[in-house]
Amino acid sequence: MDRNSPIVATLLACFVAATLVPSGALAEPAASTQVQTALDEATRRVLELEQAIEDHRAEAVAIEERIAVTNLRIIAQRDALAEARHSLVSARTAYRFRMVDIYKSSMADPMTVLLSAESMSDFYSRLLMLTRIAMRDRRMYEEATVAAAAAEYHAAYLEDLKAQDVALRQLQRLRGDELEKALAEQSTLVERLTEEAKRLLEARRRANLSTRKQWRESSIPLEDAIAKVPGVVEPYTDLVYLVSEYHPRRYRSLGREEYALCSWYGNEFHGRPTASGQIYNQNDFTCASRTLPFGTRLALTRGERRIVVVVTDRGPFIAGRDLDLSRAAAQALGFSGLATVHVEYVEAIRE
Predict the structure, then answer these.
(1) Residue 102 is part of a domain; what is its CATH number?
(2) Spatial separation of the C-alpha atoms in residues 231 and 342, rounded to whole Å
(3) How far is CA 303 from CA 306, 321, 334, in A?
(4) Same domain flag for 186 and 271
(5) Based on the number of CB atoms within 10 Å of its own CB, is 316 exposed (0-12), middle (13-18) or buried (19 or more)?
(6) 56 or 236, higher pLDDT
(7) Is 259 helix (H, G, I), strand (E, B) or coil?
(8) Is 90 exceeded by the pLDDT of residue 330?
(9) What does the pLDDT look like over 87-129, one tens digit per residue?
(10) Residue 185, domain extent
């Protein structure tokens, strides 16, 4: 090969230049890129953990409220159960003694009682007395039967409430463990973040606090009546959906549909804070979901009944159930226990 050729000269120059450049200079850009990638990943993970922590805390709020209400229900049901059992014992005792008085007396035969009357007035008095005794006996028997049924119902209901309370406490412990792990990981990662990433994280935290404050400020006064007005969900413009007067009246379908097993919650939670921060109003069209973001709008259909609700709380915490509707929402859909409801995701159309 000719050493004087341009190609050879160029290759030699490149070789010499490469040998003269310090070894760390070429590696520096690659190392810098790796560090930045690691920081970006740490920032993403911290923000992800922040959201997870917020979700855990929101669910913890909801679980605490459920446990508090469940405990109140258990106390009330224990009192009701004791009263029902006392009524049952009293009714049975009175009934037994009444039977003894009538059927063991010397004038057990009602005809003997009537025929032994000394006058027509006495006859009517005795007839009225026997009629009242017969009616009282029948009423006592019916009351005893009702009391027995009530005692059994309250006992079963109390056991169900106890099971719910145990399940909620177990779920709360699991969530607490997850939260502690997330907090530990988040704290470690925060120490590695750049100043810019920390400012981003702080801005996110302020936004979360602001959002929670907005939810609480959006609470509807409990004493106010809430009218239900016609709403529209596009493209079903020929169908009428009932909406709360405090919510938007026009929506559009997002094309996502499913069926959900729905329960409802009401009286005991009325006026208590929800997981979003908003005060629960059983007369509004709201619902609780374990996973859907707060503010999610759902168009619910059951038969010919159609409404639109907004997610403001976490729940239900009983396996197999998908949504916990407000009392007003369940009533509007025409059920009082559990019901399977068609769910369509919608978004509000701002006018």
Answers:
(1) 1.10.287
(2) 17
(3) 8, 20, 9
(4) no
(5) buried
(6) 236
(7) strand
(8) yes
(9) 777 777 766 665 555 555 544 455 565 566 667 776 667 667 6
(10) 1-217
Q: Cα–Cα distance between 290 and 274 in angstroms, integer?
A: 13
Given a contact cutoff of 8 angstroms between Cβ atoms, the answer to whether 262 and 325 are in contact is yes
Q: Average of pLDDT values for 177-199?
A: 80
Please check whether residues 234 and 202 belong to one and the same domain.
Answer: no
Residue with tokens 């009702």: 146
Whether the CB-CB separation of 136 and 98 falls below 8 Å is answered with: yes
Q: What are the backbone dihedrals phi and psi of residue 317, each rounded to the nearest 5 degrees, phi first? A: -110, 25
Query: Do 119 and 56 share a structural domain?
Result: yes
pLDDT at 318 over 50: yes
CATH of the domain at 299: 2.40.40.10
Please check whether residue 285 is in contact with residue 228, taking contact to mean a CB–CB distance below 8 angstroms.
yes
Question: Residue 236 contacts by C-beta under 8 Å, 6 or more apart in sequence?
Answer: 253
Q: Which of 153, 156, 339 is nearest to 259 (CA)?
A: 339
Q: CA-CA distance, 209 to 150, in Å (whole number)?
A: 47
